[in-house]
Design goal:
- The complex is a heteropentamer, with two copies of chain A, one copy of chain B and two copies of chain C.
- By secondary structure, chain A is an alpha+beta fold.
- Chain A has ten helices and 21 strands.
- A six-stranded mixed sheet of chain A has the order 7-8-9-3-10-11, sandwiched between helices. In chain A, strands 2-1-4-5-6 form a five-stranded antiparallel sheet, with no helix packed on it. Chain A has a five-stranded antiparallel sheet with strand order 14-13-12-15-21.
- Chain C is an all-alpha fold.
- Chain C has a single domain, classed as MetI-like fold, CATH 1.10.3720.
- The chains are: A alpha+beta, B alpha/beta, C mainly alpha.
- The complex binds adenosine-5'-triphosphate (2 copies), molybdate ion and magnesium ion (2 copies).
- One magnesium ion binds next to helix 1 of chain A.
- The site of molybdate ion has 12 residues of chain B, from helix 5.
């Protein structure tokens, strides 16, 4: 194996206690985000990477250093792997203060430097004044930050983060993102980040891996996965909302006609589309535009537009969230109306647009922006 | 009550008393129940209303104490006279003689490291053992080598454990079959010490059956059994 | 008041605790984190010293360690020493018979350390010693304290084994508890009473102080 | 007190162990979201509402029923309050199975109904097959859902939720939102929801309360707080990013001139603006539009536009995130470019727009959309 | 083999455990969750039965409960019963002297229940009894098991107190441990040996079985 000097490689498979089948790598200086539904096996995977449990088969290595090899019956202990690990439930040492918790990971530093280094990291996570507190005297988010400081401060060879920001507010979170990015600039180590927050993954991760029931459903750059999810589950995990079933009912050289709950849509044709095939169609925000109340503006031939009924309108951060139902069906669509995007450019707020529950509206669809996925 | 009256007896008469009780049952068909223990404990227990009807003490002191407390009928009777024996485990370099010359010699050569007796503070046999050691002139040399048993039975266990070179215990125990496997013994003359008068007494509320057994113990035939088991006969006339 | 016996008791109790507790911690940790077929049997075997009357345990120890025994002969030949009728024998006996009191509470305490804390400790790169000292010891401390308190008290009060193996030699093997026993047997109730009272007041004070200090210690860094 | 039949009122104050000063109410059928920085006192507050700790002073009541009154030395026990509580760390009973955990809260139901009711709720949270599992055999998110099922299933008089969705993925979360909304429709009880997710608060909450260091900084409808945050801390907690310091340097009847890092901005005048006053100015997404590369398009007089330099470009879910720096300053601006919003309507992706790091660009500002906050 | 004594020992051990453990659970819970000035002193006082030699404890119990004592007279007058030289007295004595073994491990187990679980239990609306039975008991079970094992074993082996308070009456107060002691005293080493061996094998089997079953029970629902 002629690996990159600090490429982290993992190729494991097992059937019990839970099935797992994975093969991925992460370069030094890269962040790999692992996402997937609750119970998918993310924590189980991280514990294996940390050396806290052993897969049945496979190999885990960092550069030239083999951490685990089922064939050679080789398995380095967590100590030997020198990792930084933030467990999902923090795993703080209950009888040590916050500072002592951080210092507990710094045994590799000369004694004289430990304290200062630990304090620096406590300050970075915003807990400079809480060094003397015991875990039970800290709030949930404060605990999580101590665990984070403990893992980041020890200059690990690989960083394993299990939903490390889940208990934190936006503001604190943003500050910590910066420290994480700074750390990766300094150390250029591989970072494996388990997260449920897609925004977070987009912001931080270079690569992303979708884990479901122990299987890798998809991996690649976050934007790629977002733009080309392999199936509906991936799409939903990536935050796509409006996934409706469509069926190809007509095919020309350039166009394909789809039926959607009784209405018809004309989309650009593409390879793989055959007459009668069923797809999931993602109507993402950028592809939809709610038309003003004056009906029939788009003409009566339904080609790039749909008839919908307004179900609910709710103002959310700087925008309006509208729930629509396709006419003559149960299909729901969610639309976040930001001024200028799905509406004509103007002032925000549903009042000004006069969107009211039960209205019948036309919804323009930009066919180029729709995403088709196998159903 | 066919189980018979409850008797408290000093541990050092266990061997002989078991035999006597068997004889008694054969002779009369009656039963008695017996509880072995330390005489001192029995006094404390009788004071607190223990259901004993007869006490066979290891000496006179405790019975007299009970008499003073008015818990027994009269003064009781001496039922046996205890005797002492010098014992040594088989491997011991000590030679046994009734004058304790062997002991003296061993002490002189420094070959004696431990010597077992019962605790003289509360065990009559221990008290008499000290008298013997003093009278034989061995006390100053031996007093730091003493291993004290809780009672004379434990002293014998010490003596047999192999970790002592010998000890002074009750002859009645030293004669015991079990002992012969482990060591040798020699009876010590009764003149070396105050007599070990073992006194018994009927408790105030004692039943007819208890009194019957009390009498049985004083029969010559029974007294003969006592001597077979290493006691001196007690019933010679004086109370 | 028999001061010699008192100091001997204190010495015996302290040495027993000092020797037994660290050993018990290793055994307890092993039992807590390993599972094997024979484990219930081993755990039960450890209880043996409790099941027999102390005097009988003492008797078997006396026979097993005495100068006629294999162990005793080996000790005498190679080390020129003996474990009966002297203080070191008492210490050994006390350590042996207190194993159940030391092992059980500490084992439970180890078993109660949550998985995620153990995981985190493993991932912190500390040496096993540092881990034991910094992380585990503070967490199992209540169990250890229970073990110490039980062992310390039990050694103070124990006299069956001590008497049998030690032989009641003043200054060497005559502990306060034997002295009290002797006094009661000799109907010297005044002496027995005053010694008992002293021992009680002393023991209760020491235990209360220990529990108070340990509470404060733990409170200072937490619970 | 003539309260609404099921109005939940809380008015408490204390100095130790941590300072808390609150006064709020929540109607039956309403969701009150409590947000605020980590360590702000949210969990402490919820424990008081549950009856697990007592405030020094104040009163807590539900309708006519007084739960706590410091003056009358009255304090109902948690049992008497009959609440549903999801603690931040779940507090599952470790020796009971998932189903038994749920059943533990159903003692008020007839015995025969408990099991079925519990199973129904386990199914609702997606754990129908996990009823026999012990907590330690569940993943983080599964544990959280058991805790949720336990609290929701017991038909409580008030529901107290401490970040109940923090360990869950988007998809699972969305499903649970529906169940929560359904529950509130059925029971019409007050629900207090602590959350760090502003989107969640917007989606679910009728009212919102911002807690910082034990003090209520602001309360009201989420959209209101978003649109008029009382200070920078609130603004940041609401997810506003681009908050820059401005100073009023000129004032006419209709306009106010502000200096921003050497550049000048002309905004509509408003009450409270005086010459020399300093403000924080929120440049939210809707107020900014990045102009195409051809410079000087807006003319040289800087009135409603700023000169910026592109620092970083990153593709995120269906959009592009651009970091900009105001010229001649350290002020950073973050811009999420969605097609048609901040860009001219067109295809997405930074490549197409040709946004590159280090470019000098013009940024148009819509003065009507800016939010000024006291600094 | 003295079967009568054996069954008496089993009866005494079992009754002691059955009476003591529930009481200890309430006391342990109280101690674990309440804090007050006198707590360290009370905790230390509970250790008193351990600190004195069993025979001496027995002696004081005898004097304190005997027919001459106030308690004894009250019992005799109003209940027509007595607590010395009979089985109920032994049970009382065994319960008293085993308090430390029962209380300490259970108290530690209660103290170890995490705050958030206690909170959740309070908020679940269960009656205190249901809470104790459904939530707390399964969690403190390892501590309770330790207490049971220690108490059961200790009663089997205890003879000082039993002998003093009970008086070695066959069928009533003569336990197996007294029978073994008697045999050793009477140099019936064969009988002592066989009874000891039997008691050991029995006790070890019972304990191993208990620990095995309890492990399986707990494993069946978890740990
Ligand atoms: N037992 C305690 N002793 C002293 N201070 C405590 C204790 N528990 C919590 N605190 C402090 O009280 C403050 C509020 O804690 P609380 O848990 O209520 O915060 P929170 O708003 O829930 O935070 P988070 O969002 O991080 O969960 C924190 O600063 C915390 O450190
Ligand atoms: N000790 C165990 N015994 C049996 N199954 C387990 C055990 N621990 C976890 N599991 C199961 O393994 C699966 C994967 O769990 P894991 O904790 O890895 O999930 P996860 O992806 O981290 O989920 P989450 O996002 O909820 O934390 C889950 O279905 C869980 O129920
Ligand atoms: O009472 Mo004894 O049996 O002389 O020691
Ligand atoms: Mg997980
Ligand atoms: Mg909290």
């Amino acid at each position: 194996m002629a690996n990159n000097p600090d490429e982290f490689r993992c190729q494991i498979s097992q059937q019990t206690p839970i099935p797992l089948q994975l093969d991925f790598s992460c370069q030094g200086g890269e962040i790999l985000a692992i996402v997937g539904p609750s119970g998918g096996g993310k924590t189980s995977l991280l514990r294996m990477l940390a050396g806290l449990s052993q897969p049945q088969e496979g190999e885990i290595s960092l550069g030239e250093e083999v951490w685990f090899d089922s064939e050679k019956h080789l398995c380095l202990s967590p100590q030997q792997r020198h990792i930084g690990y933030v467990p999902q439930h923090f795993g703080l040492f209950p009888r040590l203060t916050a500072l002592e918790n951080v210092l507990a990971g710094l045994d590799h530093l000369p004694k004289s430097q430990r304290r200062e280094h630990g304090l620096t990291w406590l300050q970075r996570v915003g807990l400079g004044d809480y060094g003397h507190r015991l875990p039970r005297q800290l709030s949930g988010g404060q605990k999580q930050r101590v665990a984070l400081a403990r893992a980041l401060s020890r200059e690990p060879k690989v960083l394993l983060l299990d939903e490390p920001f889940s208990a934190l507010d936006v503001q604190t979170r943003d500050g910590l993102y910066q420290h994480l990015i700074q750390l990766i600039d300094e150390l250029a180590i591989p970072i494996i980040l388990v997260t449920h927050d897609i925004q977070e993954a987009f912001l931080l991760a270079d690569k992303m891996l979708l884990l479901h029931q122990g299987k890798m459903l998809q991996s690649g750059a976050p934007a790629e996965i977002w733009a080309k999810p392999v199936n509906e589950l991936v799409a939903r995990q990536m935050g796509h909302k409006n996934i409706l079933p469509v069926e190809c009912i007509g095919l020309t050289q350039s166009d394909a006609e789809f039926s959607l709950a009784g209405q018809t849509l004309r989309l650009p044709s593409a390879t793989g589309i055959e007459l009668g095939t069923q797809f999931g169609c993602i109507f993402n925000q950028a592809s939809l535009r709610l038309m003003p109340l004056e009906v029939n503006q788009l003409g009566d031939t339904a080609e790039h537009w749909l008839w919908v009924r307004v179900i609910q309108v709710r103002v959310i951060a700087g925008a309006v969230r509208v729930e629509l139902m396709l006419e003559q069906s149960e299909c729901m669509l969610e639309l976040i109306l930001e001024p200028g995007l799905n509406l004509e450019f103007g002032l925000p707020g549903s009042r000004l647009l006069n969107i009211q529950p039960n209205q019948r509206r036309q919804l323009a669809v930009d066919p180029w922006r729709l995403i088709l996925i196998p159903s | 009550n066919d189980k018979g009256p409850l008797i408290a007896a000093a541990a050092n008469v266990k061997l002989v008393l078991d035999k006597i009780i068997a004889d008694y049952h054969n002779d009369t068909g009656a039963n008695v129940r017996v509880s072995y223990g330390s005489s001192g404990n029995f006094v404390a227990q009788i004071q607190q209303g223990a259901p004993y009807e007869l006490i066979l003490s290891a000496d006179e002191f405790y019975v007299n104490k009970l008499a003073a407390l008015g818990l027994i009928q009269g003064q009781g009777r001496i039922y046996a006279i205890g005797r002492l024996a010098l014992v040594a485990p088989h491997h011991s370099p000590m030679s046994l003689d009734a004058d304790l010359h062997g002991l003296k010699q061993l002490l002189a050569t420094g070959g004696l490291t431990h010597f077992a007796i019962a605790n003289p503070k509360h065990a009559p046999y221990g008290e008499r053992a000290v008298e013997v050691l003093t009278a034989s002139g061995n006390w100053p040399q031996i007093k730091h080598k003493l291993i004290l048993g809780e009672n004379v039975s434990q002293a014998l266990q010490f003596a047999l454990s192999g970790s002592t070179q010998g000890g002074i215990v009750a002859l009645s125990l030293a004669q015991h079959a079990e002992f012969k496997e482990h060591g040798r013994y020699i009876a010590l003359p009764e003149t070396w010490h105050q007599p070990l008068k073992q006194r018994m007494a009927l408790i105030k509320h004692a039943s007819i059956q208890a009194k019957d057994f009390y009498e049985y113990l004083l029969l010559p035939s029974t007294q003969q059994t006592f001597t077979e088991f290493g006691f001196a006969a007690a019933v010679t006339g004086d109370n | 008041m028999d001061w010699q016996a008192f100091w001997l008791s204190i010495k015996l109790s302290s040495m027993t605790v000092v020797i037994l507790i660290p050993l018990a911690m290793f055994a307890a940790k092993f039992f807590a984190y390993h599972d094997f077929k024979a484990k219930p049997w081993l755990e039960a075997l450890v209880m043996v010293p409790l099941v027999l009357p102390p005097t009988v345990v003492g008797y078997y120890l006396l026979v097993g360690l005495g100068s006629q025994s294999l162990v005793g002969q080996w000790l005498a030949t190679y080390l020129g020493t003996s474990l009966v009728f002297n203080f070191s024998g008492l210490v050994l006996a006390s350590v042996l018979i207190n194993i159940p009191f030391a092992l059980q509470p500490i084992q439970r305490a180890f078993e109660a350390i949550p998985m995620d804390v153990r995981d985190a400790a493993l991932c912190c790169g500390m040496s096993p010693w540092a881990r034991l000292y910094k992380i585990e010891l503070p967490m199992v401390w209540p169990g250890v304290l229970t073990a110490i308190v039980l062992c310390f008290s039990h050694v103070l009060g124990e006299f069956g084994v001590v008497l049998m193996l030690g032989g009641n030699i003043a200054g060497e093997t005559k502990t306060l508890s034997i002295a009290i026993y002797d006094s009661v047997q000799a109907f010297d109730l005044a002496a027995a009473g005053s010694m008992s009272l002293f021992l009680l007041v002393f023991a209760v004070s020491v235990l209360a102080l220990t529990s108070h200090l340990s509470r404060r210690m733990v409170a200072a860094n937490g619970q």
